[in-house]
Batch of 2 targets.
Target 1
Amino acid sequence: MSNTTSPQKILNSLGTFIALVAIWGLFFSLGNRAIGSAEGIESIVQQTVVIGIAAIGMTFIIISAGIDLSIGSAIALCSVVGAKLAVAGANPFVTVSVTLISGLLIGLFIGLLVVRAKLIPFITTLGTLLILRGLALALANSQPINAQESNWLRFWLNSLPDDMKFLIIPPGGWLMIALALVATGILRYTVFGRHVFAVGSNENTARLCGVAVDRTKIFVYMIGGAFAALSGLMLVSYQGQGDPTGATGYELDIIAAVVIGGASLNGGIGSIFGSLIGALIITVIRTGCTLNGISESTTRIITGAIIVTAVAIDRLRQRSN
């Protein structure tokens, strides 16, 4: 079982943070210094929150040696649910609760397929990716649901008004940090957190030690679903609409953020704040490339190269252990 406070973990997190600072410094020095302005930082946070919150849930899944390729579709479906409720006049508590329940049910469905039907997570979630996207399109009649008038929902990732500049970043950014602290506490200080690492490190050994492996796996996917639901609400806040075609390709960004942050695709290794730093790295690269006039094609190549490098480093780390 891996320990989240081990020197290796601290070194991995520190290395990822140094990479973030270096990448940000590189773009800052290229000439367009908007990336270091208050508006630039606010924009980076706005773009990071949706991926970052989902990456928190994905960290639990990957640590347990699972994977969820359908998380982008889950975000889109939950954004439609949240926007539809908000537009219908439901109060914030009902909107958030129903959206969260939707995410939990998605995670429960995936978890049961993996645990009870004994399906491979990769194949299972490749299928649910299409199922959830289809449900999102059906629920929204294949049209975005405009939620611009939902002030409480737009509040989280809107640009800060003058009387709230003291927050430095939008409230959604502080929500992401708070959720990361809670998730870190769960992984580090609870029995469930230790079980997640144990299952990811060696499922058979964990079972022999009395860990409820099946239940842990189901809970992990439900956690992933809940964070996808919150991410969906943040997507509505950022875009002002619930889009059934939104969050396309986000699953790759989210998984990449977790891996860049030091998690192992073989399971048993990972940290929440490492995943958030990974999400920031992806956003900073894209923002920096845009501000400096670098083409979209080159931006994709750079991002892909960093992801491949992160996976290669993970493989080398596994061999050295």
Target 2
Amino acid sequence: MGGAQGWVSCFLFLMKNKFADLLPGRVSTEPEDLVCYGFDASGLEAAPSAVAWPHSLEDVVEIMNFARSNRIPVIPRGAGTGMTGGSVPDRSSVVVSMERMNRVLGIDRDNMTVLVEPGVINGHLQRELERFRLFYPPDPASMNFCTIGGNVAENAGGPRALKYGVTRDYVLGLEAVLPDGSVIKTGVKTAKGVVGYDLTRLLTGSEGTLAVITKILLRVLPMPEEVITLMALFKDLEQSGNAVTAILAYGIIPRTLEFMDGEAVRAVENFSPVGLPTDVEAILLIELDGDPVVIRKEAERISSICSHHQGEIIMAEDEEARQKIWEARRAISPALYHLKPAKINEDIVVPRTKIPSMLKKLRELSEESGIMIVCFGHAGDGNIHVNIMADKENKPEYEKALGLVKEVFRMTLDLGGTISGEHGVGLTKKDYIGMEISPVEMDLMKKIKNVFDPLNILNPGKIFP
């Protein structure tokens, strides 16, 4: 016991003195800072030994060199909005918060690219690009808080992923620091490039386990001419799923095709009322963008399809009405915490045509277990956020709810889906990764991790069980 206590004392001395001296004014071991940087949106928490706020590439190199020399785990962090514990530290680690590296370094309107530091807030970048009539499609629900660096680390998606794709489809190149302190630059500035392995795509979605990203070159698009927003109301849950399949089968690709079940609608109206009808079993939020003539015709066709599936269509009359609808969509997650403060949130994906089957299975699972399951998400690409509502204080209920997670994943995989669409694996899903990834594939992934990080100091304990 004395040996362990001695090691802890030595380690804390190292943090408070040697590491703090490394970046004066940019490192803290104060308890209030450690608490603030010890959790993310997963609900998991564990205070680190220190927090560092680098301002530059050189700062990150210094941190990684110190960490490697002293074998100290480093946890890269964006804004802490992740849902799977990807940035949750442990006591022996240093959190490296990238929030002060938050500059938009350059917008190239002619080549339609933007160079940013990882701490840039997604929503801030969106607004900055609008001044140049440019458009960055990835739009997570947390876009007004989450960082681009965190989006890249998790390969974040969002409602517009149906038409425009996810973060990896816009990352052209990266500057990053490896665990040994060396700097790499990946990718190209051009539309095409196939020289060597695609390290940019490897780092995108690697959850901070391979390198610390310090610069990001993104592809952007011209801003769409016009946007039309529709809301379709359904009294029957399965019919809403059938309508999704029918819209896409017709060849219409909306920029968003979002889904809220009746429980989600009622939770939002109780939490932050925006005037949604509470007597429905599902709502589809549909947006079209592009040429005004074309999207008006598509809106008419979508209205007809929804009507055929017993849906009632409402069109947002102006920008204020449109923003109200999106306010409701983005309020779902916080609203659900008012129902049960310890909800279990999983983001499974099934093939689009399997959405009605999956929704039916989830409802049956809820009825059989007696535990409320609330669903919402990106119906257009099959990404359903499954919220198993349970109270941690009620231990039997919470244990039962945890047992449902594996069943949800099993049903998802049986339908040809995946257990994580945009939240990553982190800590909360690592025990289930073997349900989807074979031992051969897992071994290969671990070998890649070992090549980048042989000392296992960069975000250790994440992804792999």
